[in-house]
Design brief:
mainly alpha; 6 helices; about 70% helix; globular
């Protein structure tokens, strides 16, 4: 199920129909583990995992955490990775349910310079 969450974030902005909140929490925890062990020079990979983490956090929803993660991920944007940009677009899709909140506006601003 966890793998399904990670795959879903890379192909769709909507959560998979069979996925519950627990799977998103697992995805966030898995990204925490991965980001804690991935070498700093692996910038593109780190950026993709940050985007996965932000998408899962947005689905929970944890707007403040998503903004923080997106700010960190935005630093990776200069790698030119199309995959990374796609992942960030999924974050915006998950945040659509936040309405016109301050966190959503801040996220849009961060992503406008990247995606």
């Amino acid at each position: 199920m966890l793998a399904g969450v990670l795959v879903a974030t890379s192909t769709s902005s909507a959560p998979p129909p069979t996925c519950g909140w627990g799977a998103y929490r697992e995805a966030v925890a898995l990204c925490d583990q991965i980001l804690g062990t991935t070498p700093v020079p692996a910038r593109r990979d780190n950026g993709v995992f940050l985007a996965h983490q932000a998408t899962a956090s947005a689905a929970l929803p944890e707007p403040d955490r998503v903004v923080q993660i997106a700010s960190t991920a935005a630093v990776v944007a200069d790698t030119g990775s199309a995959r990374f940009r796609r992942e960030l677009k999924a974050v915006a899709g998950q945040a659509a349910g936040w309405g016109n909140s301050a966190a959503r506006r801040e996220l849009k601003e961060i992503l406008s310079g990247v995606a």
